Amino acid sequence: MIHDPTSPPTTAHWTVDQPLGDVPAAVDTELVRFFADRHADYDSIDPVVADGVDVLELFVTGGGKRLRPLFAWAGARAALSGGGGSLDPATGPADLLRAVGSLEFIQACALIHDDIIDRSDTRRGRPTTHRWFEAFHRDHGWYGDAAGYGESQAILIGDLAFAWADDMFMDSGVDAAALARAREPWRRMRSEVIAGQMLDIALENSGSEDPTMSQKVNTYKTAAYTVERPLHLGATLGGADAATVDLLRTAGRDIGIAFQLKDDHLGVFGDPAVTGKAAGDDLRSGKRTWLVMCALASADRSDPATAARLRAGIGTVTSDAEVDDLRQIIVDSGAAEQNSARVRELTDHAVATLRSGHLDTGIVDEIVTVADHLTDRRS
Amino acid sequence: MIHDPTSPPTTAHWTVDQPLGDVPAAVDTELVRFFADRHADYDSIDPVVADGVDVLELFVTGGGKRLRPLFAWAGARAALSGGGGSLDPATGPADLLRAVGSLEFIQACALIHDDIIDRSDTRRGRPTTHRWFEAFHRDHGWYGDAAGYGESQAILIGDLAFAWADDMFMDSGVDAAALARAREPWRRMRSEVIAGQMLDIALENSGSEDPTMSQKVNTYKTAAYTVERPLHLGATLGGADAATVDLLRTAGRDIGIAFQLKDDHLGVFGDPAVTGKAAGDDLRSGKRTWLVMCALASADRSDPATAARLRAGIGTVTSDAEVDDLRQIIVDSGAAEQNSARVRELTDHAVATLRSGHLDTGIVDEIVTVADHLTDRRS
């Protein structure tokens, strides 16, 4: 429990008009409540299980931008603000909040399993889940392979998070008809993010230089999962009409891809003081982004020797000077500007889409503000 | 697709009275249909995704006793055969079949992730999922760590199976009220099997000799997941009254634990020609079963030197002579008879429980036949 039990946090005053900026803190509150129930249900089985629930709670409540709940809330707000929707009287605003908050558990599963896949040691300044269990094994002088034990328990903790996403969503209190409407985006979102992750791993391991592979990863792993389907989910929960669903999905896909491309730009050109990562981190790790693939393709056409230097450097450079050299190649290839132009184009298109329907200006302006922030369109 | 598309299998003639023995083949048919839909939805994303769906299809449709669907079907039959239940006219027999068949996807996730955890190379005579992807990586001359790639993709394929369990269940066609009634066993079953797996891994790695730890693993990983909750799930789908749910859960827990203890007995004393495993396989692998823990505790009291020989031998023996020696210690300790007596006691108790209610003789006799078969009570 991370909150003082003498003054329990509450979302009792939550309303359907609540601004997007209020979503993250309110979701935190609901997640803490959810964990209190789960501790009551499962801690008594055994300390091993209670520890596992603790580890998952610290992970889920210990940070994160709550982007997916925020977009899902935006979808519900849009449905109810000119999007043709209405709420069943049986569904209260806090029920809707719980339903969108459940997306954080899908994200927890994705990150915990991703950290195993990427062999990451830390996340948000703390040991990753598999490293936590590995250290537990070592600290207790247990038998066998501590690293294998850590990965095994982390696989299971990720599975638990995936199951609990579903539990929090289905038991949110939202009426059955709204949950039934939301089945399609819920189903699609989960399969799409897994498909996107499968593609991403295949892309990294195959050494593909095909920009369309990178676009598919961006479409499924980021855009569908982070923006398009959360908006879709919220819209169906709020009973939006088909035109509003289409509009939100189109805008969401564009915002999501722009967000990923902007993130890829920061991975190469970002300021370490802002990103919290080493300068040119993506170049050091060899991440195969659309930006890098476009640079390779362009350099191949104009200057094969430079292309060879870029190709050899990606994933192998270590010094700042080497990073600067690759950065310059990417700029000179035109790919950096191509990437930035695409971010602007996609975001502009998304904004135009959002403004093309009958949605109230208030909710559209709020979504545009978030999109601008994520894609840095105004900077 | 494993069936000839010119004569598609069908469950159109499935009825609510269908015998338990008919369930496995009918579930196979529904799983094949489910995969046809998923191929249509996801193959077009990329060959990487299509391959992943193929791998999962081969795994799910390629064998298995379908025990969990069978018990869930038994629960539904019991609900409708004196258990106080009735079916909404909107729910057809094939809808119910699909709902119980979805449990095979939970099992697929559990086995695929278990195979990673146990570092198993084969299952049912074929490469495990992570080994399949590892070989794919190697065959294609990809970059990086083939084994790591295999594990990564297998984690994701397991996640996909877990998501699809839910999809198949929720989209089964069963009416919303029945699905809402089934939420509790559905929720509990998934969390309990994961908790049981966490306990199992902790037990193996800690070297615990506490028989209560082993009992907890049997309770959650086997009994709840394989028998109690499937019966519970089916009973709620069929609208069983509370007394019937209690009766089925009690009997299911007993049958499930007896089944595990019987399996543990076979793991030590079973005939390789029947079990398909090496003689004394559990002694060679060092599995910490209730049987072994009881033998250790008993030998510690009566003959510390023999206890030390057993303790040192578990997980380290390789020859048949060594296995025979450990077997004799386990027999002499009284633990083998204690284990067998417990199997008989639990199964007898389950049968008495099943006959104590108002369920029709027909469905009770069918469940008893399955229980006898699983626990070998009559042999």
TrEMBL record, chains A, B:
It comes from the Bacteria. It holds the Pfam family polyprenyl_synt. InterPro entries: Isoprenoid_synthase_dom_sf, Polyprenyl_synt, Polyprenyl_synt_CS. Gene3D superfamilies: Farnesyl Diphosphate Synthase (1.10.600.10). Pathway: Isoprenoid biosynthesis. GO terms for molecular function: metal ion binding; prenyltransferase activity. Transmembrane segments: none annotated. GO terms for biological process: isoprenoid biosynthetic process. Its cofactor is Mg(2+). SUPFAM superfamilies: Terpenoid synthases (SSF48576). Keywords: Magnesium, Metal-binding, Transferase. Belongs to the FPP/GGPP synthase family. This is Geranylgeranyl pyrophosphate synthase.
